[in-house]
Amino acid sequence: MAKQSSAPRKKTPVDCWDPAETLDPVLLRDLQVERLHAQMRRAQQVPFYRKAFEASGLKPEDIWSPEDIRHLPITTKDDLRDHYPLGFLAVPRSEVARYHGSSGTTGKPTFVAYTRNDVDTWADLCARFLYAGGLRPEHTVHVAFGYGLFTGGFGLHYGIEKVGAAVVPVAAGNTQRQILLLQDLEPEVLICTPSYALNIAEVCREEGVDPHDLKLRYGHFGGEPWTEKMRQQIEAELGIEAFNNYGLSEVLGPGVSGECAEHNGMHIQEDHFLVECVDPDTLEPVTDGSYGELIFTNLTKEAMPILRYRTRDIAALETCPCPCGRTSVRMHRVVGRTDDMLIIRGANVYPSQIEESLLRVEGVAPHYLIELHRPGALDEVTVKVEVLPAFFSDKMRLMQALREDIQRRIETTTGVRMQIELVPPQTLERSIGKSKRVLDHRNMA
Amino acid sequence: MKLKQLSLFLENKPGHVKIPLKVLAEAGVNICTLSLADTAQFGILHLIVEDWEKGFEALKKAGCVVNTTDVLALVVSDRPGGLAELLEHCDACSLNIEYMYAFTRRRGQDAIMIICFEDPDKAIDALGDRAVAGIDVMHAADLFNETEPR
Known about the structure:
A: GMP Synthetase, Chain A, domain 3; 10 helices; disordered N terminus; B: VC0802-like; seven-stranded antiparallel beta sheet; 5 helices
């Protein structure tokens, strides 16, 4: 062991991946304004923004402070959908290095694009929160996120590579095999959705494996909302320290924000994102620490410079300094949505998708009730559907076929397999106007 | 020869099978036999009643999901192998059976099976009016006056 110096220790620099995480707030604001100017110029290449700028007469030079962001146009999921597939692309196709996508209400994904620089930035931003959450070059990381159009798998993968650690790209599914890999490759870090982490713990016990015998020390979880109670459960059952991270494909994917070891909110990578927290009805900023809808502007993305994206996610911002030394604003965990989007086993599902699926099935009324449960670690979904009297058959075979047809169509549209329960007509509760179509018993509070 | 069966759609919940039965009781419709098929989520109740039209109207009025299905009543010899022989004949005539259940009344020494064929008309053509030796498809009108409770 090295001899301890008796001299008083100098204040050590903050142990973080990128010095930008500790930028002086004044310098950070200057950098944000400078980058916002550049981003507005890139956005000029997108007809949607060009038209908005022309209509308002707003020029980059009119922006003097990060707060001036409120003069810029808002972007919604519908705007992205209206310009399907690549209406928000600001660079020639030849400069695109990657496409990803997220599910949409119509069954069509919305696409996002990355240049080579964007992918590098993405890797760096994921490296930041992974490093803050204990990842070091000597570690092995088990990634049980889906690899594909979903941004989770690749984003984290690049972040791990950036840090210099080893990746086990297991992807999603086949929990028994995952447990074998956790035992035999001895990763120290687990990456997946929080509910899948609990599922792994559950299957471990079923297989007679004590999760505490695994080498796992840290877990990075995201992709779906979770609670503090779930964190405690994951930490107790797997014997690890669990970190929350946040991102959405429209502005980048994972890497927008993530927790440090203080676990007091997720540090937003403010040198790359401008965040606003607003009243979803008036779009006026809420007071510091209050819950509101988060709006993100990506300051550096080249391929798709999305300005002021309405996330529909409800969370609160925290500006008081974090003991870890990072200077950025933090966001608390997402507590809800302003729209009716459901996150089921990590997939985004809108009730309207279920309605659309039912409209394509002969014999059922578009009246339905979605019931969500979480009996073990994973979400279970039951959809109750009214059968039209004329289509009721005395033959079980035909009724089962109808049920399977509904199940298949809903799975095709949403990507989630749901239990279908046929019920007689007029048995589901009707309310004036918008009927109550979702009963969430998952207890996410 | 075709017989009207009342078919009801039920939610598989406690007390739900009682609802249509009460409706029939109040309408004074006697149930002769029934069968219940169920899954975890729902059930299908098949009923043979004495006055199916009256029963059908009463159930519809009460808001039950009900429709009628054509089924046949076949006489089957009440001895070991009686039903197996009947089904041999159905096989020989390529008749597909959706489901079947026993009738509670009997004719003389014989039992009666209620059978839902995939194609009841084809079944009548193949089996009806003693077209096959040993097979007797009952006329709906005779179902109650030629039979007696066990």
